[in-house]
Design goal:
Blueprint: E1 5-7, H1 9-12, E2 30-34, H2 41-53, E3 58-63, H3 68-74, E4 79-82, E5 100-103, H4 111-123, E6 128-130, H5 132-140, E7 153-154, H6 158-165, H7 171-185, E8 188-191, E9 197-200, E10 203-207, H8 219-232, H9 237-259, H10 266-271, H11 273-281
Bound molecules: ligand NAX, adenosine-5'-diphosphate and magnesium ion (MG).
Length: 284
């Protein structure tokens, strides 16, 4: 394996694009987050709020019906599309044209949802982030990987990665199998952990921000929203992954003196995205 490229302040400025003063919400990117199931609507709430707070102009969600009032109440800025089913997603259809889609947070793995994911992957040509249960469904039916378009970003945590590539005996084996998967399907793999690494074929990036405060429910769902937002804003997929992971980690570094490790929660990531962006502006 070649040496990783460390994602630090200097490296991130090669990827970061400053906002255009004359932009408006119609050209600032529209992202769609698909996920949720009964009891896990919170995952989509977190993901879609993080998506908005990372700068895209419009955010929609596609969720089961039971999440409608929850989403509209929790985040009035987000637009809500619903499945025909009450508690699960069974048929992913929408008439909007988002510039990026994030799929998986809280999705569940019901048979109807597995079929819906299959039909969606067959048709979809929009830049995509795949996380959580969408990855788990793919792990159970690896043929689905062949439907994933080039430069799709996938964001497995270590257990999800193991479901995708099988158990490993050493760090070297884990890296070489992940690189092989990235090359075989031309996907960008965000290997979440401490540290998070981003794999784009033979190129390995290693993040330098973040801390153990992030070891709490929903922080991965938030990351999916952040990367989807950057993709919708026309960042190249690898830059969206790198910048999303860097800013996500930075929120925990910024918040730590106030929250300590114990009381930091996924909503604190979202609350600190603004400060993380501002620290990029100050570095010039
Ligand atoms: N508020 C909500 O609605 C939440 C919904 N969530 C959703 O719940 C579903 C299940 O996701 P989960 O990730 O909880 O379940 P999984 O079964 O995919 O992963 C949990 C397993 O992975 C292991 N694991 C996780 N991180 C690890 C690490 N860094 N190193 C080693 N092992 C690790 C755990 O020990 C556990 O065995 C997903 O759809 C997810 O999006 C979760 O994100 C939690 C919050
Ligand atoms: N000890 C740690 N140090 C740094 N980052 C961590 C640590 N533990 C977890 N994280 C980060 O928190 C996030 C957890 O994602 P995930 O396991 O998918 O959470 P969830 O599914 O609950 O949203 C990942 O971005 C991961 O890198
Ligand atoms: Mg997760």
């Amino acid at each position: 394996m070649t040496n990783p490229i460390y994602i630090d302040q200097k490296e991130i400025l090669k990827h970061y694009k400053e906002p255009d003063k004359h932009t408006h919400k119609g050209i600032q990117g529209h992202a769609l987050i698909i996920g949720g199931s009964y009891g896990k609507i919170g995952a989509v709430s977190l993901s879609s709020k993080a998506c908005l707070k990372t700068g895209c102009g419009l955010v929609s969600v596609f969720i089961p019906k039971c999440g409608y009032t929850i989403l509209q109440t929790a985040i009035p800025e987000v637009m809500v599309l619903t499945d025909i089913q009450e508690e699960i997603i069974s048929n992913i259809t929408f008439e909007i044209t988002p510039q990026a889609i994030g799929i998986g947070p809280g999705l569940g793995q019901a048979v109807e949802t597995q079929n819906a994911l299959y039909e969606f992957l067959k048709r979809n040509t929009i830049p995509l982030v795949i996380d959580a249960d969408a990855l788990n469904i793919i792990s159970n039916n690896k043929k689905l990987l062949a439907l994933v378009k080039p430069k799709t970003v996938i964001t497995p945590h270590p257990k999800e990665l193991e479901r995708l590539i099988g158990k490993w005996d050493s760090e070297e084996e884990k890296m070489s199998r992940t690189i092989s998967l990235s090359k075989q399907y031309d996907v960008i793999i965000v290997m979440k952990g401490a540290p998070t690494r981003i794999i784009d074929g033979e190129t390995v990036y290693e993040n330098t921000t973040g801390n153990a405060a992030l070891a709490t429910a929903g922080t991965g769902d938030v990351l999916t929203g952040m990367i989807s937002s950057l993709l919708a804003q026309s960042y190249e997929p690898v830059s969206a992954a790198i910048l999303g992971v860097y800013l996500h980690g930075l929120t925990a570094d910024i918040a730590l003196p106030e929250t300590g490790y114990q009381s930091f929660i996924a909503s604190d990531v979202i609350a600190n995205i603004g400060k993380a962006f501002l620290s990029l502006e100050k570095q010039e």
